[in-house]
Design brief:
four-stranded antiparallel sheet; 388 residues; globular; five-stranded antiparallel sheet; single chain; binds flavin mononucleotide; binds ligand EPS; alpha+beta; Chorismate synthase, AroC fold
Length: 388
Amino acid sequence: MRYLTAGESHGPQLTTIIEGVPAGLTLAASHINGELARRQKGYGRGRRMQIEKDQVNILSGVRHGSTLGSPITLTVENRDFQHWRKIMGAEPIADDEEVKRQITRPRPGHADLNGAIKYGHRDMRNVLERSSARETTVRVAAGAVAKQILSELGIQVAGHVIEIGGVKANTTHSESLETLRQKAEDSPVRCLDSEAEKKMMKAIDDAKEQGDSIGGIVEVIVEGMPVGVGSYTQYDNKLDAKLAGAIMSINAFKGAEIGVGFEAAHRPGSEVHDEILWNEQDGYTRRTNNAGGFEGGMTTGMPVVVRGVMKPIPTLYKPLQSVDIDSKEPFKASIERSDSCAVPAASVVAEAVVAWELASAIVNQFGNDQMNVIKENVRRHRESARDF
Ligand SMILES: Cc1cc2nc3c(=O)[nH]c(=O)nc-3n(C[C@H](O)[C@H](O)[C@H](O)COP(=O)(O)O)c2cc1C
Ligand SMILES: C=C(O[C@@H]1CC(C(=O)O)=C[C@@H](OP(=O)(O)O)[C@H]1O)C(=O)O
């Protein structure tokens, strides 16, 4: 499966075309809209999220609530476009009109300067419109389709926030994935630890008050993946590497880890590798899951545990030093609106990109045209893995 996205942050809409989704998958706008709404929430979001009310239009590839096997086109309207028609070139600007025509002052931490040099844009709006994380809207829409595939195979995905602005959540949770998901849903910062939640919200308030921004760490857990998805046989078949790439592709994400991740550097092997057990009912299991569900680029059958680190939002009310590309004069940037923390929202994006990679790998490996064939192949594979 593959997908492309298109659309500017303040243009009329965002679009994704998704190819390779098997025929016969149940898919309704409500599956996607639920995910879009989750991405819009989260403490620390700015005023833009009060303007948008993301709703998907399914324009191709689905009839009577079921996928056809043909490309699926999904679009989401940018309501804010109505306020940006002139700036975006959809309406002429009168000569005497006060409209900010060009952005010549690059914001540190954004794609502005590098993108302008690369594409030769003297107006950096031509860069920021596309580098904006508004694009993650349709990635969440594509991820919702992937989640639907996983769900029909009994595979569940949940994401939550484990750190914001240096406040760490206690992550020793023994509840079911469903309970974990519900708790995250009920928390304004998508955090399971209610003590940490309060401190995280205070950290966001403090940062906002000081004109600053903060980042954090999100975790995605996936239960029910069959063993042996992905492969060690070629570097670009390693599914853990694809997950790391997917996490790193989210705007502002600067690191990814699987299982104990970077912590493995500090531990001896006896405290890292997961001992192998066997019982008649389940077949092979592991005593621990430090590997986060991966060995040799393949799933172990244990829960997939992926984390990603998000840097602080780059647009600050406390201005940072930059240079005007026309005058070459130094200036301190001033801004109109921004999120002060988008880590909770980004955890929903992280779920989507992880779901996409896992669903793609399954569809590629277990026959890729019809959903019922894939279901049967996965069922047989699970059975043979258990009896191996
Ligand atoms: C959900 C989400 C919302 C974001 N909101 C903002 C924002 O309001 N203001 C901002 O400056 N950056 C925001 N970002 C981050 C920027 O898009 C990102 O840092 C920038 O495009 C530069 O890319 P890079 O950080 O990946 O290098 C957001 C990121 C995500 C994932
Ligand atoms: C629009 C979204 O996020 C935007 C991501 C973003 C950025 O620079 O990445 C900047 C802000 O946009 P604006 O400049 O229009 O206020 C965020 O609101 C969204 O998540 O849907």
